[in-house]
Each structure stands twice: as structure tokens, then as C-alpha cells.
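From the pipeline queue, job 12 of 40. The input is one protein chain; the requested action is below.

Action: predict structure.
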Amino acid sequence: MKALARDGLSTTSYVTLIPGVLGLQLVRNVGAAFGILGGHVGAFVVLAALIVVACVVYLVRGPIRGPLMTASLALVCAGGIGNMVDRAALGYVTDMFRTLFVDFPVFNVADCAIVVGVALFVIATFRGTK
């Protein structure tokens, strides 16, 4: 999907997917979340790798509390790997989804996986074993 965005989208305009809700626009994000701390590509690659390793170690050795926690960590790993590969290969993360109903930074599927994964991890942690 990111390759399609790089090949087919513009950084100066957007394509409406759902009128008033969602569009597509190419953004080359050289920073962290919301573009902060730009220009530290190597540090972000290392940080993403450490987070992925921590999630895998937790999956193998941690107190897993069922399928919800497993799924949450898998989402964080998948999103982290997706963005890490972009950073390592291109020097930036390819973002393409633009919200039209609120002024929010452009994001990608990997970002969604990370956010949903973290939210599910918090829910699984406070829910306990079930």
C-alpha cells in the first residue's frame, strides 16, 4: 500500500475517498509521531527495533493474558516493522491517510496497527486473565 501511495499520490493535493471524512495524500514523515523530532532516522530505526524485540520477548516470556494481549503485541510488532522498514530503506515513513473532518496528521496502516495494539494491550492488562 505504501508503494502505491508513493507512486500514485501527490504531496500537494489529496484524493477524496469518503467525502468529508477521509482522503489520500502523500506525506514523507521524517520524524516520529506527528512528524516530531525529524531528522533522527537512525535513532528511530533502533528504537523501533528495540520495541519490536521487547514485544517478542514479552510474547515468549511475559505474563500473557490470553488472545487479546497476544493480538495487541502482534499489532504493535507489525506496525513497528512496517514503519521501521520504510525508515531504513527510504529515510522516511510513507503516510497517506488524511482525515477531512478534523485537522489531524496524515497517517498510515502501520500507525493504526500500533495505536490499536497499544490500546488493546492496555485493555488486556487492566482486564486481567479471562
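Job complete. The chain has one domain: 2-10+20-127.
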